[in-house]
Amino acid sequence: MQKGLLIVLSGPSGTGKGTVCQEFCSRQPRLYQSISITTRPPREGEVDGVHYRFLSESEFTRLRKAGALLEWAEVYGNFYGTPREEVENARSRGLDVLLEIDTQGAMQLQKTVEDGVFIFLLPPSMVTLWQRISGRGTDSPQVIKQRYAAAYQELHRVWQYDYVVVNQDGQLDYAVERLEAILAAEKCKVKHHREFLQQLFKEGETIDLSLH
User: Fold this and answer.
1) How far is CA 148 from the centre of its chain?
2) Who contacts 2 (Cβ-Cβ below 8 Å, separation ≥6)?
């Protein structure tokens, strides 16, 4: 069985990663979205095991020290990470795995995972990004400024990714279709078809070339 792809999607706060990932997964039955673990408390409406797996900091530290995390990062004083076993098991079953993680975690994976597909989700403009971050209505002006400054800094890491996708306002289909195109293109790469090609060459050697 061909091993599934590892697709890593990052982007600053306010680019709509969650909505895009949800729609992308709904259209791809062989796409498995890994659920991150975090030490931050659940926000209103978040469900443990659906949006995140919420752990204590001591439990998170235990998993990190045991090597059970594929990547981890600290964001605004809270820890986030990806369970290693869950991802590896899904890929071994031929499922493509989608990770929605920040740039810190993505940079870690680039050093340890040779076959990852790294995609950066962009806003259509910086004005739009500011409007999305400031329009949530749940953060103080100081927090909004901090989030925008962090988002602007994250944008500079785009050069370390393989693909970019722009998430236009009101054009969810556009962004998801670009992700589907990337997935299809990656699956057509020669490196993912070595076994088939070897079998094809082997079969070619057995063809009777005599003319009758």
Assistant:
1) 21
2) 94, 192, 195
- Token pair in block for residue 16: 């709509």
d(CA 93, CA 86): 11
Paired tokens of 38 = 């975090």
Residue 184 maps to a domain: yes
CA 177/CA 20 separation, integer angstroms? 10
Kindly state whether residue 147 falls inside one of the protein's structural domains: yes
Residue 210 lies in a domain: no
Q: Of 168, 154, 88, nearest to 123 (Cα)? A: 168
Per residue in 160-191, pLDDT (tens digit) is: 999 999 999 889 999 999 999 999 999 999 98
Residue 70, helix vs strand vs coil: strand
Q: Give per-residue pLDDT as tens, 37-65.
A: 999 998 888 888 888 999 999 999 999 99
Per-residue pLDDT, 212: 62
Q: How far apart are the first and last CA of the chain?
A: 38
